[in-house]
Amino acid sequence: MVSTRFPFEPVPRGEVSPGVEAGHWYDLVQRDWKVIRWFVEEEMGLEFRPSPLRDLCDKYQAVDRDAPAPALEELDRDTASFGLHITTSYGRLAWAVRALYGADAVEQIHASFVRDELLGADTKQRSAEYALPAGVGTMMLAARLTQAGAGRVTIHGSGVAGHDIRWITRSSDLVLVERKDRSYDAGLRDSPEKRVRRVQDEVRNSKIPTDAGACRILSVGFQHLVTATQTPAWDRLYGRGLKPFKQSRERKRLPHFVLVEHLGFPSDPGAGSSKGIRPPRPVCCLA
Fold this sequence. Notes:
It is built from 8 helices and 7 strands, in the order αααβααβββααβαββ. It is an alpha/beta fold and 287 residues long. It starts with 24 loop residues before the first helix and ends with a strand.
């Protein structure tokens, strides 16, 4: 079902990840700005406030269509990496809005989620050098679920504890999802072992409601590159870290599934050369 009131072209049905679109980059980012503004101001009835998302929107509004873009290899690695992550967050948010509203898949999105997350930052540390919009991972996951399995979603805000997404599938199954994203700035100093421990902590501390018949999913996101060839090793690493929970006495209250998502680029610190890179699709590791 395609919404008759959504004023933009929807994402093609079944597309579960943003692809490379035809057209001039300027036209695409201006369209995305209109989508984001419609969502925040018209659909949610909120005002943009100073935030990483607002800062990037302002820059895109002021940019010259014919302004030359510097090659990534001309930038220092930290600048290139953060630039790719924040511009990708902008595009992913617009894609998620188009996927959710274009398919009429939204039951409700709480205003507090948009105000506190999307119009906030992914870190509360004032000393942080880098900050991304928070909540984009939640929007993306909700959009992917409905693109893959139809149905409708509610995205909760600060007034609901234990889960962020309530998804009623096409077959009327109930899925409750808690999304936890590692902040970009803090994640720059993470080791593989620290990421595994973070996933373990999120599982241990999860409080997803144990509604009768509901499937419980915990999703943990990192702003860190995992290539296709590295994915099997990371799967094993997370699998070993989660194994103790399978025999836990508290298993009945723990998530049924844990989804660990890595979104990164070759320009990220420790990821090798950035020469000639193209933004890859995010890599998902299931454990």
